[in-house]
User: Fold these one by one.
Assistant:
Number 1:
Amino acid sequence: DSSMQINGLKHIVLYIVLYIVLYIVYCIVYCIVHKAVVSTQSTGKLYGEVIEMDSQSHDAYIELGALCRGTMEAVAVYDKFPFSSELTFDDAFIFGEMVQILMKKEEFDDSRLEKALTGYGSVMGWNSLGNYVTTLENAYKTKILKQIYCAVNKKSPEDADVQHYFKVKLW
């Protein structure tokens, strides 16, 4: 009878030790996650301050957007960048990040998609938009495609060559 009590006590002690180990692991994971969240929030706040001081800093917008990890919040950050009329490769990078997120989330009716595709295509050329154009064609978004094509190529929608292109593309 006493051996059964000893075995029972061993099991109780084992469960207590297991519980304590699991609790310690939980606490460690919680601390790591909490530290990462606090660190990300602090970093985001610092980038926000940099943006306030120098709103033309591509790097601050890029890094702050990267902290948002492919979310619509990142698109909102990138969209706040004050683009000039003369676009650069840094501008194209920001536009490209917006395009990737919006396309991945299938936000085809978001007005920022047209802006981003136009900006990206203006710097990198119409052919750089190939996969995105195909995706939009498959989603029957011909109106936005026409607007982007004209803006990127700096042509009027009434231009004869443009009209011919639209007919060939079945837009």
Number 2:
Amino acid sequence: QPYIASYFNAIDDKTTISSVSLVQAFEGAFLAMGCLLAPFLMKVLSEFKCQTLTLVFMICCTFVSSYIKSFIGFTLVLTILLGIGLGANQIGCFNYTWKHFPQTKNRITGICYFFYTATPVLINIIQNKIVNPENKEQTIIKYYNGKQYKFFDESVYNK
């Protein structure tokens, strides 16, 4: 999030880490919509096709969002589209594993949620090594409404 905030703050001075943090809150709501959409998709398509379609959809959303220059556009793609894709993919994953382990649905659900939680942590570590290999600190300090915000300089966020 600090990298995204730094990038968009260089384009639009009003973007802060607080506004970037709102993206995740709204993404949760659209993730729930994707969870509601998944059973319909699995009826129309097979489970495998639903999983494949939502995975390709999420990859496309991530790819497209990396080229968007406005924070509003970035937020719309990443929040709405990626959230729906994540929700549909998550329910498809659960449905698929429940069929193979009908006696241990609770345990399998717990394992799935563990990996859904652990994966972003691992990806953030890898992402930080790629984007900020020297582990530079946030050096740009700006004040908004009396609050201090720190941002990365262009050599970090523009990789």
Number 3:
Amino acid sequence: DMGNLNCNNFPEAKAVADFMKVSTSVKGWGLSVCKINDLGAQALADAVRVNKTFTILDLQRNEITDVGAQALADAVRVNKTLTILDLQLQRNEITDVGAQALADALRVN
């Protein structure tokens, strides 16, 4: 089961992240076009670190930069159950630096 959500700011992304930390029934989150910035990405990364049940995180078409990408990369290194991380780099604000951090993390994962 995958939850899809339309959120437009950090407080909503943080609320989703807080729920993700304790949820065991949702296997993935579709959070595309949610205007999630680096603060939201950091909150989601914190959830990725602790949630061991979901396998998909869709963050395409947001406002994530290299800072958020690095936070997500650090979380992916810890979480071995996340198998699909969809960022669509051209639809966020992630440069080669953030892309490399994510690629390195996914290699470890």
Number 4:
Amino acid sequence: IMLFKTSLLNGALLQSVSDPERAFAFLTDSEAVVKGLILGSLTMKRGEVAHYQVKGEYSYQEASEKTPPKPDIEIEAELLDFHEKWKHMIDLDDKERLEFAKKIKTIGNDHFKAQHIKAAAYYYRQGIEYTETLIYPTFSQTPSEILELRKSCYLNLSIMCNSLSLWHSTIKHCTVVIEKDDENPKARYLRSVASFKIGRFEDALLDLKIALKKSPEDAKMQEFMKEIKSFKQKQEEAEKKKYQKIFQKESIYKEINPRITSSLQKFPPYDPSNPKVFLEIKIGARDSKILVFELLKNKVPKTAENFRVFCTGEKVHPYRSYSYKDSYFHRVVKNFMAQGGDIEKRDGTGGWSIYGDKFEDENFFLPHSQAGILSMANHGANTNGCQFFITFKKAPWCDGKNVAFGRLLKGFDFLLNELQVLEATTEFQIPKLPIKIVSCGEFKEEIAPEAPPKKKKAKFSTQLLTRLL
């Protein structure tokens, strides 16, 4: 069971497995694995890290898009553990699977006690996968022994992820537990720590308050609450000093080129000469639906081009993705918007632009004046990357803060009656079902734009008025 990275001698990356949960498990007699990796593993001890070169005869035997046949390569490998070959999951009945899942969890516990954190994370993930094959018609019909074992593996895995600073993984695993056990103090506490570490201070505080409500005497939680409050106080004081310095400078009111020069009250009419793109979106196991957008290249050319390239995937880079294909919408806020486009971390904290890590706010000429406006998500001024959002209604509070650059031409029914009403699993507006962009690209066909739905006016019954009078 290994983590590894292979690359050409010039440094070009070929293959990489770095997530301990998904470590590379292989048989030492496998013909599908690079022979140099197998031979290297046989000379290593548990927990050992090795860096070595491999000649072509022990390398990749067939040519690919990245490599010629039999190239000399470098291997960086870390051996997490090794064991005898397990029986395949399908060869075990339900009772045997449950017992084996318990055994795997015990192996994980042993590695944790020995401070082999990465190996422990791998085994806890395996324990989860074995328990998740024990399927019952409903959650309530699943035996409590299975549910408790699965929950225990998720919580232990979360502890490992926090130890490895894999904060987003912790949040994901704890959320699974909280969905079924809303006030679980351990899950709330672990998620609170992870949220704090990535700067989600309000989320961290909310989770910790719920955890302390269930475990008010827990010294570790009490100490962490003091840490959060202290940090928040220092942050507020720093912000106050910052703005005091800003307002002492009179020049702030004498900008020659202010950021907001002008803006429209309404979105301009459809212009067929602007590029059109589509996103094919699939919610859970439902049939996919298509959204078609106009990108207003005549108003915000740089921002429109950034989005168009991520739709076509035409920009190629050896280490970075430049395509929305297979990415997800990670946030849905009813009566506001759906946010997606994080091609790196899928949770709203990652990504980049086609111009570099970030690019500046181009202008705020286009307003968020209706449903279906396509706009850039950001983390403050001039921090545009690949993330975007689509409005469900008029959102004037985004004007001057987010750069609008497109509008929905087709798909309002799906946007407002399927995407908007999708249930969110937590207070962080994470959608309960995965919302995946299964394909995307330029839309070449002629199209008659759909009009955004108008707000329905309440009908007043004259018959009711007569009764009231």
